[in-house]
Specification:
There is one protein chain. With about 170 residues, the chain is an alpha/beta fold. The protein has one domain: Rossmann fold (3-Layer(aba) Sandwich). The chain is about 50% helix and about 10% strand. It is built from seven helices and five strands, in the order βαβααβααβαβα. Strands 2-3-1-4-5 form a five-stranded parallel sheet, with helices on both faces. The mean pLDDT is about 95.
């Protein structure tokens, strides 16, 4: 069986990490975590545009390390499309290397988490008032890159059930 790669994607505070952890537990596999959190936590200054390239490289490294340990499915709590959108929204452009990597990397399914869950404050989050607009940007990018995706809305239980049902139907049955 081919290893299946599932990516959680969407605006800030839309339940991506929660769902990613639930899916990794459900499928008894590893989780490629969001490298940006760890990277920014270690900075002793505000992040700058050049940090996004380092975050992208770290994200790929994180994913490659977890890929070697995954069983049947790898759950990714983000990918480089997230970093592209972050760069374009914050700085108006994105490093060419990141764009090239987006084109080269392959995933089987994106789970686009909706903005129907309450915003939760986190010092790393920046756009509570633009979540719906950002959601539309994510939709546009997924379509632009011709990615297979599923929109995930509802409470934690509904989201998990929908994700599991879709993954099982698409890849495991």
């Amino acid at each position: 069986m081919k290893l299946i790669k599932i990516v959680l994607i969407g605006p800030e505070s839309t339940g991506k990490s929660t769902l990613a952890n639930q899916l990794a537990e459900h499928y008894n596999t590893v989780l490629s975590e969001e490298f940006a959190r760890e990277y920014i936590d270690k900075l002793e200054r505000e992040y700058v545009e050049s940090d996004l390239l380092e975050i992208a490289k770290g994200q790929i490294n994180e994913e490659e390390m977890k890929l070697a340990k995954a069983k049947d499915i790898l759950i990714c709590d983000t990918d480089l499309i997230v970093i592209q959108i972050w760069a374009e929204v914050k700085y108006g452009c994105c490093d060419e290397w990141i764009l090239e990597q987006i084109e080269m990397r392959d995933y089987d399914l994106y789970l686009l988490c909706g903005t129907d869950v309450p915003w939760e404050f986190d010092f790393q989050r920046e756009h509570p008032e633009f979540r719906n607009e950002l959601y539309q940007i994510y939709l546009k990018k997924l379509n632009q890159y011709n990615k297979k995706y599923l929109e995930i809305i509802g409470n934690k239980i509904v989201r998990l059930e929908k994700a599991i049902k879709s993954i099982d139907e698409l890849f495991l049955n």
